[in-house]
Amino acid sequence: MALVTAGRRFVQVTLREFSRRSTAAASWGAWRTAERCFSAGTPPLRSDNKVTVNFINRDGEKITVKASPGDSLLDVVINEDLDFDGFGACEGTLACSTCHLIFDEDVYKKLGPVTDEEMDMLDLAYGLTETSRLGCQICLTKSLDGMVARVPESVADIRQSKDGSA
Ligand code: FES
């Protein structure tokens, strides 16, 4: 009986620790993105200081929204409640590549450097192009006003591939 109780206690402690670490990892990834966006020289936010972003969805439909400098493109999709199936599955923690977006070359050149972590995840994206980036890693600046971001035809979520569910 004591052995069963000890086993249950071990499982409870292990699950609690796993949950705590998972939450911490997700928070850390989101914090890094927020920190990078903030340090990209974002000017103070004002209501007339919006950036126009044009998304082309999988059906070829153009969706134009206004967003704040400093927001990531994942923030924009979430804030505007845009229905891009499967987009942003890992909530910006660089663990899925479902936020893959394709840009025109002139816009791509303005997006800032690609980190090694983003490059690793981009390699797993469906339909990768020379001007692909992950939307959760793109911080809006006024210089991106009027940008076009194309949502690829499909998404690849590495997390599903790892557990065999896709
Ligand atoms: S939302 Fe998962 S990598 Fe961007």
UniProtKB/TrEMBL annotation:
Annotated keywords: 2Fe-2S, Electron transport, Iron, Iron-sulfur, Metal-binding, Mitochondrion, Transport
InterPro entries according to UniProt: 2Fe-2S_ferredoxin-like_sf, 2Fe-2S_ferredoxin-type, Adrenodoxin-like, Adrenodoxin_Fe-S_BS, Beta-grasp_dom_sf
GO molecular function: 2 iron, 2 sulfur cluster binding; electron transfer activity; metal ion binding
Domain of life per record: Eukaryota
SUPFAM superfamilies referenced in this protein's UniProt entry, alphabetically: 2Fe-2S ferredoxin-like
A biological process term (GO) from this entry: P450-containing electron transport chain
Domain 2Fe-2S ferredoxin-type as annotated: residue spans: 51-155
GO cellular component labels: mitochondrial matrix
Subcellular location, record wording: Mitochondrion matrix
Pfam families cross-referenced by the UniProt entry: Fer2
Keyword Lipid metabolism assigned: no
Needed co-factor(s): [2Fe-2S] cluster
CDD domains: fer2
Assigned protein family: Belongs to the adrenodoxin/putidaredoxin family.
Protein's name in the database: Ferredoxin 1
The species this protein was found in: Cyprinodon variegatus
Taxonomic lineage: Eukaryota, Metazoa, Chordata, Craniata, Vertebrata
